[in-house]
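Re: [ENG-882] Designed sequences occasionally contain unexpected residues at chain ends

Forwarding the minimal case from QA. C-alpha cells:
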C-alpha cells in the first residue's frame, strides 16, 4: 500500500541518546523559524512523568518551544476517559509534532483505541499527521507505528518450546506507517528471525529493523537515517534461491519505497576491491570476528574474496548459528535453534563503505532453518 500522508515519521529503535535525532525532529516540526509546540504521550511507560521529563529535556535542548505532557493513560484511573476529552484532542491539534515514549506498546494502543474504538485523541493525531504534522516515537513508541505490530517475542522464541524464550506476539497497531512492519532494538536484541517470522505470519512483504540510538525518518516514499546506527530493510521474496532479501542503510544513505532501491552517495562499492581473505566464514558467538550483523555481512560476506565463501550453485554465503537452552540444565544436552545463511548473489548483492569506516549493503539473500546442535563435551 502506498502511503499518501504528508507528515514525517521518526521511528526510533530505542536507547535514544543520539542528540541529532531530536534536532532532526524539532526542525521537521518548525516553520518560519518559530520554535514548535510539541506534545509528549508517555502512556506506554511505567513511570510516565519521568519519561516525559527525560524526553522534554532532550526536545527542549534541541530547540523546541512549548512542550506539553498530554494527560493520557491506560493505567491511571484519574485519567480514564481523557482519550475522548475534546479539550485534550484540541491540545493535540494545536501541536506541530507528537512524541511517543518507550515502555509497553500495548498500553498506548489500549489507551487510544479503548474497546476497539478509535478515540477522539487518536482521530486528532491522524488529522495532525495528514496535515503535515510530525510523529515520532522510540522503542514501544516505534512499534505502534505499524499495523499490525509486534507486542513481544524473541528470535529463539520463534523456534517454539525453548525455556525462557517468549514466542512471537502480534496484534493491532496504530498504523501511521502502513507500508511494512517495524521492529526496534534490532541489533541489540537479535530480532532478524523474529521480524522474518512476523512477515510470514502477517502476509506483509517488507519489514524494517531499527537499531538502537537510530531514527528511521520517513518522508513520503523516501527513508533516511539519523543517529548512531542503521536501518535494516527485509524483503520477502516470492521465488528464488532464498526466501528473504536484506539491505542496510546508515546516515547519508537513502531507501526509496517506490523503486525498492537504496542509494549510497557518500560511499564506494566493495565489489572488485575486497580487502578480506577469510575462508568459509562462520559467526558462532560473541568472540567471532566482525560479530555484529552489520559487520559480519558488510565485511565477511561482501568485503571478502568471493572464492573464500561457502558455495551453493552460483551463490556464495556465510553461516551463523542461533541456539538456546534445551531445558534439562545439563551442558551436554542438545541445543535447539537455527542455522542462518546470508548469500552474496553476484548479480544483485552489493556492499558499500566510506573512508570513515561506515558500512552499508543491499540485496543480501537470507534464509534460516531449525537445527539441533549436540555439544561434544570431554
Amino acid at each position: 500500500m502506498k502511503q499518501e500522508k504528508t507528515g514525517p515519521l521518526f521511528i526510533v529503535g530505542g536507547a535514544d541518546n543520539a542528540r541529532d535525532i531530536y534536532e532532526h525532529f524539532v526542525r521537521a516540526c518548525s516553520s518560519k523559524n518559530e520554535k514548535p509546540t510539541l506534545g509528549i504521550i508517555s502512556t506506554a511507560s511505567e513511570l510516565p512523568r519521568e519519561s516525559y521529563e527525560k524526553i522534554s529535556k532532550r526536545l527542549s535542548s534541541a530547540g523546541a518551544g512549548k512542550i506539553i505532557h498530554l494527560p493520557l493513560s491506560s493505567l491511571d484511573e484519574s485519567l480514564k476517559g481523557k482519550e475522548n476529552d475534546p479539550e485534550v484532542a484540541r491540545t493535540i491539534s494545536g501541536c506541530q509534532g507528537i512524541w511517543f515514549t518507550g515502555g509497553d506498546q500495548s498500553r498506548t494502543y489500549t489507551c487510544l483505541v479503548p474497546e476497539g474504538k478509535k478515540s477522539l485523541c487518536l482521530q486528532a493525531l491522524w488529522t495532525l499527521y495528514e496535515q503535515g504534522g510530525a510523529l515520532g516515537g522510540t522503542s514501544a513508541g516505534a512499534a505502534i507505528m505499524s499495523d499490525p505490530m509486534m507486542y513481544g517475542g524473541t528470535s529463539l522464541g520463534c523456534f517454539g518450546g525453548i525455556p525462557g524464550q517468549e514466542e512471537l506476539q502480534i496484534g493491532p497497531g496504530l498504523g501511521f506507517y502502513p507500508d511494512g512492519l517495524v521492529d526496534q532494538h534490532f541489533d541489540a536484541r537479535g530480532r532478524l528471525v523474529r521480524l522474518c517470522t512476523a512477515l510470514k505470519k502477517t502476509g506483509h512483504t517488507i519489514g524494517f529493523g531499527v537499531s538502537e540510538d537510530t531514527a528511521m525518518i520517513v518522508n513520503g516514499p523516501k527513508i533516511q537515517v539519523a543517529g548512531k546506527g542503521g536501518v535494516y530493510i527485509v524483503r520477502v521474496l516470492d521465488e528464488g534461491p532464498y526466501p528473504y532479501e536484506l539491505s542496510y542503510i546508515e546516515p547519508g544513505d537513502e531507501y526509496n519505497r517506490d523503486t525498492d532501491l537504496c542509494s549510497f552517495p557518500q560511499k564506494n562499492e566493495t565489489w572488485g576491491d575486497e580487502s578480506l581473505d577469510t575462508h568459509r566464514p562462520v559467526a558462532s558467538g560473541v568472540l567471532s570476528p566482525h560479530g555484529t550483523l552489520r559487520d559480519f555481512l558488510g565485511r565477511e560476506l561482501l568485503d571478502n574474496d568471493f572464492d573464500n565463501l561457502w558455495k551453493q550453485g552460483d551463490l556464495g554465503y556465510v553461516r551463523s548459528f542461533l541456539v538456546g537452552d534445551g531445558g534439562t540444565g545439563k551442558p551436554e544436552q542438545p541445543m535447539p535453534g537455527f542455522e542462518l545463511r546470508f548469500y552474496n548473489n553476484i548479480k544483485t548483492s552489493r556492499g558499500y563503505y566510506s573512508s570513515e569506516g561506515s558500512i552499508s549493503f543491499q540485496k543480501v539473500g537470507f534464509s534460516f532453518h531449525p537445527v539441533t546442535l549436540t555439544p561434544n563435551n570431554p
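QA comment: On inspection the terminal residues look reasonable. Helices lie at 19-29, 48-61, 86-93, 105-112, 120-130, 140-143, 192-202, 293-301. Proposing we downgrade this to a documentation issue.
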